[in-house]
Prior knowledge:
Elements: H1 23-49, E1 68-71, E2 77-81, H2 97-106, H3 118-131, H4 141-150, H5 157-173, H6 176-186, H7 196-204, H8 213-222, H9 235-251, H10 257-265, H11 279-294, E3 301-305, H12 309-323, H13 326-329, E4 334-340, E5 346-350, H14 375-384, E6 392-395, E7 414-417, H15 418-423, H16 427-437, H17 439-449, H18 470-481, E8 485-486, E9 492-496, E10 502-505, E11 512-513, H19 517-532, E12 546-552, E13 558-565, E14 568-575, H20 590-599, E15 604-608, E16 612-616, H21 647-655
Parallel strand pairs: 1-3
Antiparallel strand pairs: 1-2, 3-9, 4-5, 4-14, 6-7, 8-11, 9-10, 12-13, 13-14, 15-16
Amino acid sequence: MARSTKRGGSSQGRARPRPKKRRGGGLLVLFAILVVWIGIAGCGFLLWAGRDLPDLSGLQTAERAPSVTYLDRYGELIGRRGDQQGRAMRINELPHYLPRAVIAVEDRKFYYHPGVDPFGIARAAIANARAGTVVQGGSTITQQLAKNLFLTNERTMKRKAQEAVLALQLERRFTKDEILELYLNSVYFGSGAWGVEAASRRYFGKSASEVSLGEAALLAGLLKAPSRYNPSSDVRRAEGRATVVLDVMVEAREITPDERDAAFASPIVVARAAGASSAYYFMDWLDVQLSELIGKVDRDLIVETTLDLNLQRAAEAALKAHLDTEAAEAGATQGAAVALDPAGGVMAMAGGRSYDQSQFNRISQARRQPGSSFKPFVYLTAVERGVRPGDRRMDAPVRIGDYAPGNYNDKYEGEITVRRAFEQSSNAVAVRLAQEAGIATVAKTARRMGITSPLRNEGALALGAQEVTPLELAAAYAPFANRGQGVFAHGVVRIRTPEGEVVYERRGSGPGRAMDPETWAVMTDLMRGVVRRGTGRRAAIEGRDIGGKTGTTDNFRDAWFAGFADGLTALVWVGNDDFKPMQKITGGTLPAEIWRDFVAPAPSFQVDPYAGYRPTAAPDPAAPEMDPVAEVEDQAPVQTAAEDDPLGALIARVAN
């Protein structure tokens, strides 16, 4: 039979088609492998983070809150925190709607998750990514409890992992109601009130067992931001937040619409505060440090601090006196003041004009541009590179690429001495000196002195255009007051039990010498000139060794005076929380005046760089009558050639 020659008649000799690869299957395998490795890495990270977690075996529900008593440096009582402010409450002692209000706004799935809510974390991450900032938190009530009881407030991956591990452990050890009980008795409600009982007595003058539905909603609303929604400082904002809580409770079917409407119709009477001292800012600052110093606070403690209550009262009085008068007319609504002893101990910390109105601590928490008060670090860098006060530089418009800063009021003097440029706060000369030394070198000097915030390598750094906290700026000024020694700002000297057992005692000093004696002598002489002849004349105090630097930022958003007085370092800031410009308030006007009144009663310190320091009685002269100073930063008289003090004379003063 003849072989067929038709195409397709036989498959002999033809290659069989290869099966198509299923590309989707390969991707699924890769994805599965990736998920497994991510899981392994995540478990490993959790194991690593959980190595040094605290033991939960001694934790009890509704336990008596330990008391913490704060004393100033002379043993005078500052205040107390803990059990004195309110006993621990059991869930069955509270009206049912109070814990339900907290659950509705803080963790609606509280009774259903195992301590960590992955869906809540994912939802918060998506919302934050869309907003470009943190607008939602993914922590459960159990996680918040773990952080409050055992961890610090640092924002690190390790801390978040530890928080999650502890939350899972808490869920295994306690019932949901016991966890909620612990949370309500330990969380901060603002105005110095820790725990729901203390908060109820603080805001309503009665026990938490007696609060109404509307009052419960107000308390629950505080947890998101205690200072922002504090009814003592902003009733309208607190009411708005309580309304949100009630609406959420209706949505979660915890209450009916009729119950919500009845709560709306019942007025809430907020108890008037007994004039909370601004020393509460200081205690708040130390509260968060105790766990870092000694771990969990599980017994009554007495904390001996560096605060000087007399100086604290002077800071409060100076802020109030000035901010309640001329500041209001010039559009300044806030101010803050801080003082450090020669070793960096905080002697006064007024974080705002009124703790009752706002618990936000502008000394330790606010981030503001220091303006010209950053210039001492520029001049320090220049002096260390050989520049002397009598050297001359051009006070004229300067341009560095696209950066072209101008002097205040666009006034220039031509060629002037470095001394006069510092006293009159010339922007042009400061930028020229920074360029000569190198911006990176100036940043390095500032960090060596005590600035801890990140500093970018850009020309505007010379004029203080990068944000810092007032506390770190004050600490960076301390070497000018104490003959060149770097400091760590601190507030705790010793922690002991009422029986006398010492739990913690501060030892050691600061980071070491920040500048040599010769450089210190030149810099402090320049800073004295600011007060004697320059922009800071209103800070002068008769009979005191005063030096410092003024600072004013663009559009008068910030005004500063920072300086030293007989070994003490002090700083005053004036501005607005919303960064709204003021009306020509410069560092040499209102801040310098507040600084003068604040520092006048402060003790003097005899500083010995080798033997430490000792306070002496503060002089009490009548405040000198100062010549009127125009509200500008550059109208002090021109110095003559006599301003050129020889370096040898300055060094002799150090030696003597």
